[in-house]
Amino acid sequence: MSSAAKDAKWEEARKRYRLSYEHVRMAKALGMNPAKLGKIANHKQEPWKAPLPVFIEECYRKQFEKPAKKKPPEQAACDENLG
Fold first, then answer.
1. Residue 9's pLDDT is what?
2. DSSP string covering 7-76, please?
3. Residue 2 has what DSSP assignment?
4. How many domains does the chain have?
5. What pLDDT, in 10s, does the model give residues 15-28?
6. Rg, C-alpha atoms of the chain
7. Angstrom distance (rounded) from CA 26 to CA 13
8. What are phi and psi of 6, to 5 degrees?
9. What is the per-residue pLDDT for 80?
10. Contact at 8 Å (CB) between 56 and 26?
11. Closest C-alpha among 62, 39, 40, 60 to residue 50
12. In which band, very low, low, confident or very high, does the pLDDT at 47 lie, cut at 50, 70 and 90?
């Protein structure tokens, strides 16, 4: 499938599910398939599911957000004494 065809599918999904360009970018980075978004965007019939934009944001955050590095207890104690 050509790049133009893939972009057309994403554009159609963006309009159908009312996604922003940022949500489309996140979904592409996660490797989501635009043809399968209907299964995920079923929050009206299945109220326990989050709306699609919220779901994409949560998945992206979990996948790509780097956790804060914890300092070793010795270094944390030294930093507290200095400051």
1. 94
2. HHHHHHHHHHTT--HHHHHHHHHHT--GGGHHHH--TTTSTTSPPHHHHHHHHHHHHHPPPPPPPPHHHH
3. -
4. 1
5. 999 999 999 999 99
6. 19
7. 13
8. -65, -45
9. 60
10. yes
11. 40
12. confident
Cα distance between residue 10 and residue 37, in whole Å: 10
Q: Specify the amino acid at residue 31.
A: G
Residue 56's domain comprises: 3-82
pTM confidence score = 0.73
Upper half-sphere CA count for residue 39 (Cβ side, 13 Å) = 5
What digits encode the pLDDT tens for the residues 52-82? 999 999 999 999 887 766 666 666 555 565 5
Nearest Cα neighbor of 9 from 58, 50, 28, 39 is 28
Q: Which amino acid is at 35?
A: A
The more confident residue out of 2 and 13 is: 13
